[in-house]
């Protein structure tokens, strides 16, 4: 079975499981096809979506410090999990390349389209950079990286991707990363911070409705790839942020009762009016929670980087001694 066929089978099994249970769920990781990538780029450009600019500010402000820290043990592999369009990473890559640092950039993403676009754009803006992009899910790729111990590794995860995982899954994710790290390896990871709940709520419920289109792309994808008949316009996006737990949740809600047939899966499901599909969580953090996650996973925080507006933090981790 090819990688693409395996991925498609996982997607189909996930859809069957998520839509035959109550309450229904679908994972946001399947939003990212060509259209999903494009919509996420539009989200990043929204004034309400403060995360991108805040983390861009961190990378830009501390790029020379990061160059020194990453390069401390000589030539290394820079592995990025969930690289997307690499908007912020490019700032770092330019800093490394222009200072003749010896490294290979290995971007990993579930979206083949994201990897292709990123590789092509890097070839044109940084032709001297060595890029080895790979399509795959975090966990699958991490398993393979365990056998990959030739040079020091710097693993980066930007954009608060970890926030899409509940705490037990996040610990599992960090543990998996820790298992592939040696003592000189580093993990540099973004964690969006708790803040005014309205700022968070607005970031995921933008006035232009781009986030709604982004989430609806999951249903468009199922219609297209599994020969289904979701009445996509009858599903509205709803965001709710709980300041106590720091969890933002996004839902698609059926505004009409409907029956959906997914022909490729030989499967039918019904929706009552106002029934939900839970699509995504975006967890918000504080230092204590990140420290707890790190300790649970066998990691320790080396350094914390924060943007000027104090909205977002990137943490540098090492394996706990
Ligand atoms: C929120 S975007 C962030 C992109 C980028 N890191 C940034 O900060 O701009 C999440 C990215 O991770 C990818 N992604 C989501 N779930 C993934 C998974 N389980 N494995 C690999 N990539 C994943 C998506 O395709 C998307 O490009």
Topology:
Blueprint: H1 3-19, E1 24-25, H2 34-44, H3 50-61, H4 63-70, E2 76-81, H5 89-98, E3 103-109, H6 112-125, E4 130-131, E5 134-135, H7 138-145, E6 153-157, H8 167-179, E7 186-192, H9 197-204, H10 210-225, E8 235-242, E9 247-254, E10 258-262, E11 267-271, E12 276-283, H11 287-297, E13 299-306, E14 312-319
Parallel strand pairs: 1-12, 2-3, 2-6, 3-4, 3-5, 6-7
Antiparallel strand pairs: 7-14, 8-9, 9-12, 10-11, 13-14
Helix pairs in contact: 2-10, 4-5, 8-11
The structure holds S-adenosylmethionine (SAM).
S-adenosylmethionine binds at residues 29, 32, 40, 82-84, 87-88, 109-111, 114, 137-138, 158-159, 161.
